[in-house]
Structures
1.
Amino acid sequence: MLGSPVLWGVIALLAFGAGYFFRERFAANRASSLEQKSKLQLEEANRKAEAIILEGKNKALEAVEAAKREERERQAQFTKIEERVLKREEFLDTQLKDITAERSKLGAEIKKTESERADLEVIRNRVGGELEKMAGLSREEAKAKIMEDIKERHNEELAKSLQKLDKERFEEINKRALEIITTSVQRYARSHVSELTTSVFLLPSEDFKGKIIGKEGRNIRALERATGVELIIDEVPDGIMISSFDPLRREIAKMALDKLIKDGRIQPAKIEEKVEEARNEMNKRMSEIGEAAAFEVGIYDLPKEIIQLVGRLHFRTSFGQNVLTHSIEMAYISAMLAAELGANVEIAKKGALLHDIGKAIDHEVEGTHVELGRKILKKYSIDERVIRAMEAHHEEYPFSTPESYIVTAADVLSAARPGARRGTLENYVKRLADLEKIAGEFEGVKKAYAIAAGRELRVFVIPEKIDDFGALQMARDIASKIQYELKYPGEIKVNVIRETRAVEYAK
């Protein structure tokens, strides 16, 4: 029993030694395996590196060969060019020799001709002197006597011949002018639609009419006041008729109504907001219309301020004719007339397009539209030749250039087309504009709108400047001035409106 622990210890020691031996052997084998693997990877990397180097050498050789080939081709081209240059130099040398020889020959002939001319002059003078001695008259006296004899004998025939020449010349000029004008007008044919003073705005349903009218009519009154138009509710089914002599006001009212319908909230505060948005959008739209008009006639160098005023002409009429359409037509006709007559096409075209530019602001500023147009064009440094071309179309200024005659002729041709203009409508529009102008001359007036076909004048005053009694007095004064200064059928209702608003913000 005592030998058993010793035996077990010997066995454990042997087991430990065997385990240690096998672990060392395994570690050695593993190290040998890793070393072998690393060696293989190193060899693989070397092979790849050699392959890459070989491939790089091949590409470098290819690039060198390509460069050499390109150099050979370029050298061949240079050689061909050099040969052509040499041949051309030889040709030019030959030509120069021929020209030099020809010049020498011509010089000799010129000298010979001058010598012969001098000889002829000597002979002519000698013969003339002999004739003068024989006739007893000098050369000038003989010429005068011959002319006097011819005049006495053929005076009547000369007068008839001159009259015939003048008549034929006049007929030829008229015929040529008629051909140029008819050709230009036929080449440009645009239909004309006379502008009306009303527009129709269609509603999604009849229910919106009540919303637009509002409680006790406050919404429709706010909309009419903000836009300066008259809204007629029951004239059109599923729609509202917008009445105003100013197309710009009608368009702003249509845009504001469209925004209100889409928003759904129709109330005085929202109406003012949408009308202001519509005015801002209208300014952008006028610029777009002006750019399109200038692009259509091929004018690309006008300032953006002038472009916007051109777009504003789309919302102006002259005797029922749209002013922008009229100006575009004039630009085309002027360009064709200028081309036929040999005048400056660009100047004539610009002068025609901008001839009525003053009408874009003549509602707001004193002066004729021609004078206003000149000031606008000078302000924005438009070519002086363009200003001279446009300023004479109503003969307020003299015709100073050929283009000024062309622009005036184009104005007459465009306005004289059948159906282009209506005088009665223009007189009606002018009467409404005069009504608003008279009201605007009174101190304290904020806005004035002529509505109901000129039968009513609505005047909005500044409440801080005009009290209730002052509003009554102003209504009488405006009515008296209208009676004194204007001619009109029927009667005109002068409605002076004074409204006080208190606005404060909670912050």
2.
Amino acid sequence: MLPKIRKTAYVLSSGAEQGLGLIEVLVTLLVFSIGILGMASAQLDAKRASHEATQRTLATSLGRDIIERMRSNPQALSSYAITELGSSIVDAGTDCSVSSCSPTLLAKRDLYEWNELLLGASQRFTVQGSTSYAGGLAEARACIAVASGKISVALAWRGFNSMENASGSNCGQSSGLYGPSHEKRRLLFLSTYVAY
């Protein structure tokens, strides 16, 4: 024999239900808004991290590019040494792709072309008569040192977030572009040896 189940119905008075739906909707909107703000913040952080990674990848590629240019022209290694590149346009010199160049002239042309890559000059845009570059590293500076075949290439650029100032080179620190204590300065330092 089965036990009897008692059915009980609870009835709320109509006065207790008033306004309950509106409060639920407002709480739901509040929770939804906080979630959307969190997602937007996460998206912004992801975009910044992606930009930082892109800049580091570009810096690595540029560093390898100039080292390979120097390896292909070992007779003029000392001509590649430069204190700081990126702040001004370098003299184009002779276009060695259309005429014959000495190793020194080739080094001068390589520095010009590399500076253009560093600044992102291939992607120009003009706003109200002022031309700016869209590619390249942000606020880029580069330094190249050559001593008895040892090559040191330092690339500095501006990052988004503040970090401890990178060590290994003071390239770009005199520019004042990276904050009062250089906390937004990013640095890539490459070192190799080229037999000449």
3.
Amino acid sequence: MFKDSFRTDEDQGLAVSMKQGDQQSLGLLYDKYSPALMGIISRIAGNAELAEEILQNSFVRIWNQIGSFNPSETSLFTWMMNMARHSAFEEIKAEHSKNPGVSDTVYKGIKKMPNEDLSYPGAIQKAAFDLIYYKGLNCKEAAASLNISVDDLRINIRAEIKKLKEIQVA
């Protein structure tokens, strides 16, 4: 159970207000969640300027698609995080297709294995999670990058998610 469960009620109220066209609610969500979303986007984009642009576009997308938010399926923050994450991947791919020479290093950053020492305990779990969640690889690609089976990859991802949930609850 989350210690700050009041946030859910507050977020639900902001979502309802946004659905009714209240632009001030979007500003409140921006103030509350832009640092967290920027962290996710920055990690995907690898470029501060591009990340800032993606963040702004993400909030426009959130505003335009708030009608599709269903509180019975997910929390508002998780929904917003997924919107921002998808915006980041789309923007990077669009940049690459418009100008392959300039954004090639950013695009390759999505597909390459992180430069991490995989010998410490939990490193494979973290790398598996990062490749799927932050780098946008599918399970087959991530497993190949780590030289493990897809089943082992899924086991490692579940373990990392469990670890993250335990940290969040504490």
4.
Amino acid sequence: MRMLYYVLILALALMPGFGPASADEIRVAVASNFTDAIKDVAEAFEKKAGHEVVLISGSTGKHYAQIINGAPFDAFFAADARRPRLLEEESVAVPGSRFTYAIGKLVLWSPDPALIDANARVLSHGNFRHLALANPKLAPYGKAAEQVMRARGVWEALQGRMVHGENVGQTFQFVKTGNAELGFVAYSQIKRAGDSTEGSFWEPPQSLYTPIEQQAVLLKDHPVARELMGFAKGDQARKIIRAHGYGTP
């Protein structure tokens, strides 16, 4: 199995955008739910600092596995707090660099404006074929969706109708393209900066799931990566993050 990981890392290293970074370029692994927001943050950073940020989007679980096995990333914006903490404990991350950059919100969403009401009664007796959610074993938003459905007492009953995305980005696409009538996605995906996605949605009470505290961590003590992390903590970045539907610490 480890040999397969080494083959994967070698293949990544040979791909465009995965080779050694230049002095003014950094590689940043980012959770799929945060892709749109980090693009805007990175663009603002690039204009201010004059450096280039290469973003690689994917599930937090897969990024974690790649990082443990040597993937050439300089920083990691995860969809949870657990994986950055583990990287710090395993001496893979730069000590003391971990911080919370956003608080994620889970929503149940459908493009159908009449499908989801204020109490999400569709979960108990709705007429639908497929409900999408991110893989709870890999994605924090999937784990949160599982917690909500267990709290509502529908987890077991809906097993036969669930379709799992590798991450919340893929889950959103399942619903958007009609492969699932509804799904648990990130609020930031339906409330993009300056825009709102059509349809109906329910925002579960935060008491039903563990808060989605999204943390970032430095993987290499690269001066540009450290500068980006400092920028991500600042007022300009926090304003961008909130505009994309996240809370900020």
